Amino acid sequence: MTYKLDELAGEAGVAPRTVRYYVQRGLLPAPEFRGKDTSYGREHLARLRAIRVLQQAHLPLEEIQARLAGADLEEIERIAAGAPPHGLEARCAAPEEAAAAPPSGAPRGARWERVEIADGVELHVRTDAPDRSRRIALDIESRYTTLAPKGSR
What global pTM score does this model have? Predict the structure, then answer.
């Protein structure tokens, strides 16, 4: 499916001006031109929705651009649907390891993922946590990585 600028902006819940700005900044690829009509596609809509999800997690545009830069359409659609980007999952312990030492106060039998923030500092996220909680974990991790000097993790 293709969209005109106003249609795309309406579907994504942003202003047309925002779409143009994101293209200018490199957050969105340039639209296709067909004759005198500019058209946007599925990837543009998915990227706009993913940007919104990551903004709701309080990520700055520079971080959002970096996270989306190497992502394929499938990953972008996962993010747009509210799933944490693969970067968060890649730094989590396997569920078997996390379940071996759950945080105190955890429900019996609960399964946890560990996110290493720094040497000796971990964030525990229950595997059945709501998407909002997973986005909070992503936000904490991303804030640390933007503040920490390179090589300190």
Answer: 0.56
